[in-house]
Design brief:
This protein has helices at 2-11, 35-52, 59-72, and strands at residues 81-84, 91-94. Helix 2 (35-52) crosses helix 3. The termini are close together. It contains three helices and two strands. The chain is globular and about 40 Å long. Strands 1-2 form a two-stranded antiparallel sheet. It has 95 residues and is mostly helical. The model has no long low-confidence stretch (mean pLDDT 88).
Length: 95
């Protein structure tokens, strides 16, 4: 989803900020978030996980959630596109 939106922005002449965690495959070609960036997001990710009853101990999952904080934090509007799985426990899709 992110790459598709990035392409659309460039195609239509819009600027695009790409935020990726260090574990992302494109981290070698794009500047990933730094450790201080990840650390700044940690309290918010931890709090959200607690309220949702989720475990975010896997390091890759944690880095993507920390990245999501930096995507959402400066936004004026957030659109979440998705649907519930058949058990209505998880949302599948993207932001």
């Amino acid at each position: 989803m992110d790459t598709h939106v990035e392409r659309l922005c460039h195609l239509h002449g819009h600027s695009c900020v790409v935020l990726i965690p260090p574990c992302h495959p494109r981290a070698k070609s794009l500047a990933p978030l730094t450790q201080p960036d990840l650390d700044a997001a940690l309290p918010f990710v931890t709090r959200a996980a607690f309220h949702l009853g989720r475990n975010v101990s896997h390091p890759i999952t944690l880095q993507y959630l920390q990245r999501n904080y930096h995507v959402i934090q400066p936004a004026y509007l957030v659109l979440a596109l998705g649907y519930f799985d058949e058990l209505r426990k998880h949302v599948l899709g993207g932001t």
